[in-house]
DNA sequence: TCCGATGATGAAAGCGCTATCATCCGCTAC
DNA sequence: GTAGCGGATGATAGCGCTTTCATCATCGGA
């Protein structure tokens, strides 16, 4: 291949080459280049090879913006998570990203900061970019979202919950069933006064559901639930530390702490270590999420394993299936959970 | 506003409205709509108001793909991180995302899995989407990347390191200086045989640099560095646990473990707890990163605080400045680090 | 009274691709 | 021999916007 200087078909100096430049260089029409790149089987091997060579010589990079406009599909999926500073959602994003990447799709990511209005505006922005699909976290959205999505006509997957009225598809699990199961486990293991540690009422949809499950486990057995110890910030161990202190002061004595997530549980366990409180001897601690560190804490954290990465992967696959024109059945996938009993309860 | 049925200027049924539909409805030309939306100050208040009303009535969402093609700017920034399953990079992405969001930019995210070829192909894909800027992690890239970026002519920020030959701009810190400072601290505090726990040689750029700093701190004082305890996976506490076991078996006795990151350090501390090894009495443990949990471990983790979120924010701001046509000086920003001494060393 | 500013609006020309339809060739089938 | 067909290629028309340039009032100053 000639390295020296631009030839006839070469791109004008200083401009990034376009498909027409490649075409000229390869001595074919623009359409043929488009086909050679997009549907190579429609082009003869020699032509394809000439095009490939021209692409390489010019360093041509197809403009996917133009392609998207012409084909009205972007191969972009938008995802909104409450926060990235949290390994749980990060795992989902990672799973999603990998599935999409393998299919040549790209991920447009936004974080809502647990604010449904920001979620709404991010979703709108993604749709404005003509994302082919959307992945959302949770079931609580602005009322207007439904209309915006319907108007755009793109497939959507909600994750991390099992909404009563899904927008479209769901890849999630039941937070209340999981919390109920965890609570039932604690009761079965002999704990009698189980406090729930989490956000106040209405603080956040998933925390609320978990609290509901905890309450129901008691109700189903005719027991009265223990106290709800409210924390301000569910994403810091500090809340767990404070909760332990409060729990120890309560009478009748609380013998187990069910934390709305593992970060809080870690705070509680650490506070116990510092205060010399035996876990689970004096007080048991259970978490929710089963983060990486759960088995490594001392004592190992009893918790609920949730399908973080799988939700992302499944959401991605559902979207891709739908975009490929395949029917997605069922539209609501419950990825389940698992009670993981370690030493802390 | 009339709810009932489409009117003259309304969009054809079943199609999503375009700018022309809005224009017809508002009784102005398409250009005016474009201006009313993009540069409202160029349009009279009444007209602007008519357009706004028409937009609302039709539920019009501008097509940013078309806009991008026409204006040749996408307001999209692409970012590549090694992994999201790691709170360190997640913090950077979060910081970046927030800065971009506030400026009306969107984030296209990819994870390379610590593979430079995947980084390269992601970067190329982002450039194909005509991202206005790129944020990369680290300084080790495929050779071809430089040319691809130069060809696209977009601003780039490298993060998490201080590359010797930056691609363009940098928002990072010196891993070797930080590791050297941490090691110097350990030496100052009286530890004499400090093992480094991290990936094997050449495993990863940042781990290598940290090891280099550890070695240099010794060399500068005419001391011989302790052993390098290699682990397979630096992102799991398991490596730290294994490392502790190996360290305890060494003679002469290792009295401090300097782990290439906090996750490994956590593994080591936990292993000590389990084995009843006093920290720092028998062996001190230092980490790198200062993740959320560091102050909450028992004992609190002595570590290096790195500017995770700030690198993301700074990278975002540098990009935005450059895109706004402002000069960015200096192009290499060292965000520094901080030695945080807690109880573990 | 006329003129160049100034402000508000519009018409037309693309941005760089893909979709669609047309063309052309060589081949098989009768 | 020729109709018919599939494979390979090309010409053309947009995709829905922004940009640029043109138009046309309106207005204060000479």
Automatic annotation (TrEMBL), chains A, B:
Pfam families: LacI (PF00356), Peripla_BP_3 (PF13377)
UniProt keyword Ribosomal protein present: no
Keyword hit for Signal: no
Molecular function GO terms recorded: DNA-binding transcription factor activity; transcription cis-regulatory region binding
Domain HTH lacI-type: 17-71
Entries under SUPFAM superfamilies matching the protein: lambda repressor-like DNA-binding domains, Periplasmic binding protein-like I
Protein name (record): Transcriptional regulator, LacI family
């Amino acid at each position: 291949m000639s390295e020296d200087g631009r030839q006839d078909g070469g791109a004008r100096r200083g401009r990034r080459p376009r498909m027409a430049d490649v075409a000229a260089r390869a001595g074919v029409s623009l359409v043929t280049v488009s086909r050679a790149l997009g549907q190579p089987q429609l082009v003869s091997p020699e032509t394809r090879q000439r095009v490939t060579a021209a692409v390489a010589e010019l360093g041509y990079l197809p403009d996917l913006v133009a392609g998207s406009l012409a084909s009205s599909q972007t191969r972009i999926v938008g995802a909104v998570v409450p926060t990235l500073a949290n390994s749980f959602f990060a795992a989902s994003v990672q799973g999603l990203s990998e599935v999409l990447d393998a299919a040549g799709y790209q991920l447009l990511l936004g974080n809502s900061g647990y604010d449904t209005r920001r979620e709404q505006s991010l979703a709108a922005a993604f749709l404005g970019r003509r994302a082919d699909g959307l992945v959302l976290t949770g079931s609580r959205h602005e009322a207007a979202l439904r209309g915006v999505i319907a108007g755009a006509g793109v497939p959507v997957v909600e994750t991390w919950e099992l909404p009563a009225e899904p927008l479209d598809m769901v890849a999630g699990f039941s937070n209340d069933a999981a919390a109920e199961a965890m609570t039932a486990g604690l009761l079965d293991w002999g704990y009698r006064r189980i406090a729930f540690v989490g956000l106040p009422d209405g603080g956040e949809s998933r925390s609320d559901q978990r609290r509901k499950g905890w309450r129901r486990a008691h109700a189903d057995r005719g027991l009265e639930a223990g106290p709800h110890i409210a924390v301000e910030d569910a994403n810091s161990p500090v809340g767990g530390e404070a909760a332990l202190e409060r729990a120890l002061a309560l009478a009748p004595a609380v013998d187990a702490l069910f934390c709305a997530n593992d970060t809080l549980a870690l705070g509680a366990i650490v506070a116990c270590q510092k205060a010399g409180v035996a876990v689970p001897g004096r007080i048991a601690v259970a978490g929710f999420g089963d983060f990486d560190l759960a088995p490594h804490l001392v004592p190992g954290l009893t918790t609920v394993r949730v399908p973080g990465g799988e939700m992302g992967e499944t959401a991605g696959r559902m979207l891709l299936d739908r975009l490929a024109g395949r029917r997605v059945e069922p539209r609501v996938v419950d990825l389940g959970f698992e009670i993981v009993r370690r030493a802390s309860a």
